[in-house]
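Data availability excerpt. The first of two example chains:
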Amino acid sequence: MARGQVLIVDDEEDILELVEHHVAREGYGTRTAATGEDALEAVRAARPDLIVLDLLLPGVDGLEVCRRLKADQSTAGIPVVMLTAKGEEADIVAGLELGADDYVTKPFSPRVLVARIRAVLRRKRRQPTGESEPIKAHDLVIHPGRHEVLVDGEDVDLTFTEFRTLHFLARRPGWVFTRHQIIDAVRGMGYPVTDRSVDFHIATLRKKLGSAADRIETVRGVGYRFKE
């Protein structure tokens, strides 16, 4: 029995075959797609456990594929590992902000890619079951399954990182978390995220939350907490 189903999306046939070979050798079931449209159709036909997604695709590009998947409640929870030649910091940040779980640049080591896939699937399996339960704090409501935040009944448009940060803090009201703990919880260890970027995300998150902004408190010299 396969360890999980992986959808591999790339318009370069040699890379598609290379990735499929190494992923299948690790015991995963595989399916492939060469365009963004084909990838979306493949996900609709049968949800994979993980998607390896190239960015530079003909037609609908990889960023748009990721955006559509993360915007749909039925597919938002599918982990995405981006595999692309676009290795600039801005490209990496854009991919992670859209909800990608990891980012591997070309040229790449197939062994490293497979290790990243295993790590992402391990993190997904370890998520506590309570993470899917809605959280209510007076005028603020967080729906993890729907990736939705409401303030006074109005929808708040958050990026993937902003949502994960808010949800992480809100699940443990009153607990103080350092910036490094927030980074590890939201992105996993080893991501190119700095303390300063955490402060930036908190600042933009507070601005978007409006009247509920004071729910996130700064603890000087330590980090942040969600106000009970």
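And the second chain:
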Amino acid sequence: MKTMNPGPIGRPSARMPRLWAGAAYAAACLALAAPPAHAADAADDDATAIVRKADEVRFPAEGFEAGVAIESVAEGSAPQVRKYRVLSKGNENTIVMVTEPAAERGQIMLMKGHDLWVFLPNVSQPVRLSLSQRLTGEVANGDLARANFAGDYDAHVLRVEDGDGGPLYVLELLARERGVTYHKVLYWVRKANAWPVKAEFYSVSDRLLKTARYEDFQRVAGKLRPMRIVMRDALHEDEVSTLRYSDMRLRELPDRVFTKDYLKRLE
């Protein structure tokens, strides 16, 4: 029985059926064009590192305390201002206390991981909340209580584009699991220093919900950080909430602080 001579590499044998020869040639071209799997993995690792650095610019990785004033405006309505005191540690543990208006003082939100509760002064049992639920204006509970993009999303670099101050990474963040604040985020991060510049937040149906801009960078808690975040409704651009951070400082916060039993001491 005679064996088929495959011919030189890269050129199909004359005896090879034309269909097989075409398929083999196409497969060879795809193999040459497609990046190796480890290259794609490395790109995703780089994207995750970019998001993690941007997280550390926004807020300290260690324990910290800060005041937050949120001013919400909409056409035809008077501006509303609400104030909070935030204690946070490691992006997984956060306490948010209402300080103004006075009628709501004493309300406390506790976040542990993706679990969020609100404790009300005259209610014995805490009430479970979702991170995506609206807190005030254009601000969701998760916008204030949880800011762990690196932990909540798989990141991919879509492109690099020019921006004021230099090139910007444009990253796509896709939620790793249900229950996070947003299903998808498009995130612009300055290439030179990992400063967050802006973000777009999307629903499960891929509808743009709102945008955010990170502004007024000041040196606090050992790093230049955005002390103002402007969030704008995607459909009603006149509906805007501005978060202003103040008095941010590092603080030693034992784990016992972030427990239901400890909250009564923080009122």
